[in-house]
């Protein structure tokens, strides 16, 4: 979307700085700029803006409703919008607000230290990919539980596979199975729209088992074909409350003639551990049976994970937010390096998720990360597409090639 069409909202209590920011925006070609001197007024403008605001540029330290509270309220509206943080506060604090912003589901374009220069502002705005306008709320709507369960009963769910590549060699070490719903009317539906209702209602196991079964079948086929890749399946922490889970998973994988050594279970941190005892029992048993265990979204989770980390995890998956920000945010870089260091000391594999660029790939490679997963290599693909992708990748064999082909 060209600059002149973007709708900006400036939130800044300092009158001169607000004026300067507006001038800067105009000098970059912006034509629609609204402004507010505090969070409350900004929220009012934001809620009533028609057409909706595309980008908010907000100060953090403001009297009354501060930037943090404002961002939370913006997140609560559920309206798609991107935010740029502009602040004179120290970078460590800006970093934690960045993480908070993302946690509230807001698209954070970047944080700029004051004073804001035109070049820096343009760089950050350039990263703006026009999100869904308000006219298409169906994109984020979750489905009703009944409809999801019906879809499960009709086998409309399937795994898409995203490769996990060894940075040092370019070898395909595995693939993560990511659930997709082939909806009869809406087409391919992403997990965000069906996982939360399944988790909230206690039905997530039905999806997990269906995914695991299909993932195991495909992985078995890869092995037969001579591709020694493991398959990773996401496990909700909620499922771990049932002490029989490990046995059911083991049985199911055996039934598909697959050795548990080829299966990695990724435990997401998003759900709070309902019952730490049974979670530990399940995870220990799974590990004992030979399954790989991965800590998903490492770095973003709650303290529950610290208890679980007493388990012999075999893999640590570094959340994409740290990969994304590592080049420009010191705290992210530190978390990235510390995570890699920890994985090395524990002698377990480190997987970086969300690797999108050549620069990220190179950085991770130089820091000794084991595997990379992300759009730089390939997006999640339907099983057949993944199978043919692996053939071509083996021909090219190198990440450089993937970069050039893009
Ligand atoms: P996750 O496990 O962290 O999976 C990674 C997500 O990042 C996937 O989103 C993937 O499509 C996306 N991704 C991959 N590469 C890139 C990249 O380079 N850049 C960016 N920006 N994103 C990338 P997806 O498929 O929408 O899945 C979202 C989440 O849903 C997953 O996050 C996982 O927590 C959950 N999920 C997916 N399948 C299942 C499942 O079968 N069971 C459970 N319990 N959760 C699942
Ligand atoms: Ca995962
Ligand atoms: Ca993740």
Describe it for me?
By secondary structure, the chain is α/β, with parallel strands linked by helices. The chain is built from 16 helices and 15 strands. It has two domains: 123 residues, 3-Layer(aba) Sandwich (Rossmann fold), CATH 3.40.50.2300; 261 residues, Alpha-Beta Barrel (TIM Barrel). Helix 3 links the parallel strand 3 and strand 4. Helix 2 runs parallel beside helix 3 and helix 9 runs parallel beside helix 10. It starts with 6 loop residues before the first strand and ends with a helix. The chain binds ligand C2E and calcium ion (2 copies). The site of ligand C2E has 25 residues, from strand 7, helix 8 and strand 11.
Tally of helical segments: 16
Instruction: Round the Cα radius of gyration to an integer and report it.
Output: 23 Å
Look at the structure and name the CATH superfamily of the largest domain.
EAL domain
Give the oligomeric state: single chain
Q: Give the termini distance in whole angstroms.
A: 22 Å
The overall average pLDDT, rounded, is 86
Total strands: the figure is 15
């Amino acid at each position: 979307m060209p600059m002149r069409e973007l709708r900006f909202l400036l939130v800044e209590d300092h009158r001169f700085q607000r004026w300067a920011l507006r001038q800067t925006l105009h000098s970059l070609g912006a034509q629609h700029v609204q402004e507010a001197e505090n969070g409350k007024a900004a929220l009012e403008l934001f809620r009533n803006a028609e057409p909706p605001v595309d980008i908010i540029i907000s100060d953090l330290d403001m009297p009354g409703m501060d930037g943090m509270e404002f961002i939370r309220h913006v997140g609560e509206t559920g309206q798609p919008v991107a935010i740029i943080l502009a602040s004179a506060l120290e970078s460590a604090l800006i970093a934690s607000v960045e993480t908070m912003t993302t946690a509230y589901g807001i698209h954070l374009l970047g944080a700029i230290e004051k004073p804001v220069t035109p070049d820096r502002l343009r760089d950050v705005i350039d990263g703006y990919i026009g999100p869904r306008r308000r006219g298409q709320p169906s994109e984020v709507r979750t489905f009703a539980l009944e409809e999801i369960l019906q879809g499960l009963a009709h086998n409309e769910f399937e795994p898409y596979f995203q490769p996990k590549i060894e940075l040092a060699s370019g070898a395909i070490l595995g693939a993560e199975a990511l659930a997709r719903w082939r909806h009869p009317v809406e087409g391919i539906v992403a997990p965000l729209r069906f996982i939360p209702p399944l988790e909230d209602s206690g039905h997530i196991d039905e999806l997990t088992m269906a995914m695991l079964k299909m993932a195991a079948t495909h992985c078995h086929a890869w092995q037969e074909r001579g591709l020694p890749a493991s398959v990773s399946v996401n496990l909700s922490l909620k499922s771990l409350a049932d002490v029989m889970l490990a046995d059911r998973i083991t049985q199911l994988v055996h039934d598909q003639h697959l050795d548990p050594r080829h299966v990695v279970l990724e435990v997401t941190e998003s759900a709070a551990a309902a019952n730490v005892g049974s979670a530990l029992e399940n995870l220990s048993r799974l590990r004992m049976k030979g399954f790989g265990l991965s800590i998903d979204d490492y770095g973003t989770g709650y303290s529950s994970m610290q208890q679980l980390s007493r388990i012999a995890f075999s893999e640590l998956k570094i959340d994409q937010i740290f990969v994304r920000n590592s080049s420009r945010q010191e705290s992210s870089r530190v978390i990235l390096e510390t995570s890699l260091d920890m994985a090395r000391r524990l002698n377990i594999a480190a997987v970086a998720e969300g690797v999108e660029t050549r620069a990220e790939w190179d950085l991770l490679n130089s820091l000794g990360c084991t595997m990379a997963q992300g759009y730089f290599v390939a997006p999640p693909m339907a099983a057949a597409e993944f199978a043919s992708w692996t053939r071509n990748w083996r021909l090219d064999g190198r990440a450089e090639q993937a970069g050039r082909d893009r």
